[in-house]
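This entry is listed as follows:

___
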Amino acid sequence: MSLPSGPTAPPIARIQQNVLAVGERHLLNWLCARMPRWVTPDLLTGFGMVGAFAIFAGYAASNWGVDWLWLAIAGYAIQWFGDSMDGSLARHRKIERPSYGYFIDHSCDGLATLLILAGMGASPYIRMDVALVALAGYLLLSIHAYLSARVLGEFKLSYLAAGPTELRLLLIGLTIAMMMLGYAPGLFGAVSGFDLFVGIVGAILVLLFIKQTLTTAKRLALTERR
């Protein structure tokens, strides 16, 4: 992933404090050093989007059989590889295109998030309205990260010690639970345990957005007052 630059943009600091950040960085550096020359950052970005479409297809097709969820799990692995490696490879080869990379990467991130949560909503396990609440929460927090990169010069890649990789692992675990438990109504009637879990995650994301917005607004007000 690349960050914006230009004569009016402040220097950008990447803030990444998720649990797996150090280990993941070592792995990505190891992979970058061994990546064939014909593999390009743009190719990896496209590969990541293939993974996102596979996730959507796996969840949607689970209406016809639980084994389709394996496709969603494989899609998460593909999407992680493409999304994590594209910017890493560009930086490793020193071929970054900051404005282009920032625009394409985060445009793809938004579409991938839509595909993942729409796929969940199209499955028999999670209601579409609940999935859309989680989508709104994730996109709100993404908007905050993009705005902070512009006004503060800080690009926050993790919240509550979790980043995209931890979130993917959480969703893989949720998908395995779907395979094991099925989609019979739970203790909450029309709202299943899966609905409750995804809804709570979505609510946490919205609350994080509100908290981060207030914190950033206070910080900017104090800075400009000085």
